[in-house]
Amino acid sequence: MKEKIENNLLLKIFSVVFAFLLWMFVMNTDNPVITKTFTDVPVDMLNEQVLDELNQTYKIQSGETVSFKVKGKKNIIDRLKKSDFRATADVSSMSSVHAILIKVEALRYKGQLDIDTGGATVKVALEDLKNDQIPVVVKIKGRPAEGYTVISQTATPNLVSVSGPKSVINQIDRIVATVDVTGVKKDVTMNQKIKCYDADGKEVSQDRINLDTNRIKVKIGLAKTKTVPVSVKTKGKPAKGYVLGSIDYNPTELEITGNSDDLAKVHTIELANLDISDSTKSIEKTIKASDVKLPDGISFVKSTDKIGNIVIRANIEKKKKRTLYIKTNQIHLINNTKNYKVTFANETIEVQISGLRSVVDKVMAKDLNPKINMELFEPGTHTVQVQLTKIANMSIDGNVSATITIE
To answer: 99 FRET partner, CA 20 to 30 A, in 82, 284, 371, 375?
Structure first.
């Protein structure tokens, strides 16, 4: 009997062990241990402040991200994402060759995972820290409302304290606040972001530097503007037989600014007199915008550097005389309200013209638009004045008349 009981007990123990082994076999078959690689996980730097005491900072040369292997049960591994891990590098444990061991910690299933980084490290280069104060430059974007211009821009603060790697701080030439004034018609104060730029106007990344402020206040002052023509006066007369034609210059008008009362008094900007005395050829003169004298309280909207030079040319040509013959059937009868019949005594009339050769040679009868005003006359024979249109750089010598009979 005792032997039978012992045999049953052994059988039961064997059955339990066999069932457990069978369960383990099934579990390992359905949920095996697997390994998965995670890549490009960002590395957080810890205890960076230890370098502050040495007045140093660092630049990562390699190891900003890490790849590692994770070993564990399949049903767990399959649930994991990059965000379930945190990779860190403790700056205080930096080696003599400036390498920092990367540690990876699972944020879930900590006790059920085996993580292998393969000894990955962050390699850094040490660099001295530098503190500096950089001036703020206000850059204007756009144009104010028509009739207004920006006359002042004030930044508060006008200096910004920066700190960071010496190599980066040394690149910074200025700190710029860009202000868009499009459509503005009154003084405004704006809160603007600032950016760092080097001497070539390229933006300097602020990733590795600290600024004591990232925004500044910019006050924009406006004033009214007015566009007025430029005028040029001449002194003297050309040599005998020569005549002054057109006076060319550029720009022909300029935009000025000032208070309303002062602007109202300015109707033109007069440049220095151009002396053409006894000239037989065209004369040119260059005037610097900075030499143009403006009334008190008035200034140019553009800087004189942008306006540049004003080049004046007085065109002087040899004077020419010419007799122009106009057929009387080309003369227009105006205001002939009574429909008189008009007969001309001659088929043509003579017109003596003089002036620039280039103008005189090209003038035709139609350019003078000859006409007679009939409302002044009654039936009969009359000697009447022929009205002619004036042409620039040419004159008509004496009065031009025609004999007509009105019926």
So the answer is: 82
Omega cis (within 30) before 370? no
CA nearest neighbour of 247 among 258, 238, 239, 259: 238
DSSP string over 63-97: -SEEEEEEEEEHHHHTT--GGGEEEEEEGGG--TT
Q: What is the pLDDT of residue 356?
A: 84
Q: How many C-beta atoms lie closer than 10 Å to residue 168's C-beta?
A: 21
Query: What's the whole-model pTM score?
Result: 0.53
Hey, what are 268's tokens?
């033109």
Given a contact cutoff of 8 angstroms between Cβ atoms, the answer to whether 163 and 129 are in contact is: yes
Whether 27 shows a pLDDT value over 70: the answer reads no
pLDDT tens by residue, 345-373: 999 999 999 888 888 899 999 999 999 99
Sequence length of the chain is 407
DSSP code string of 2-63: HHHHHHHHHHHHHHHHHHHHHHHHHHHHHS-EEEEEEEEEEEEEE-GGGGGGGTEEEEEEE-
149 DSSP β-pair partners: 223
pLDDT value of position 13: 64
pLDDT interval class at 52 (50, 70, 90): confident
Q: How far apart are CA 379 and CA 340, in angstroms?
A: 8
Q: Where are any strands of DSSP class E within 198-308?
A: 203-204, 210-211, 215-231, 234-235, 242-250, 253-257, 269-270, 274-275, 283-288, 299-300
Determine the residue type at 25: F
User: Which residue in 218, 223, 207 sits closest to 158, CA to CA?
Assistant: 218
Q: How far apart are CA 386 and CA 354, in angstroms?
A: 18
For residue 69, what are the CA distances in angstroms to 39, 89, 120?
A: 9, 17, 11
Cα–Cα distances (Å) from 407 to 329, 348, 379, 393, in that order, read 17, 20, 5, 39
CA–CA gap between residue 168 and residue 217 (Å, rounded): 25
CB–CB of 124/97 below 8 Å? Answer: no
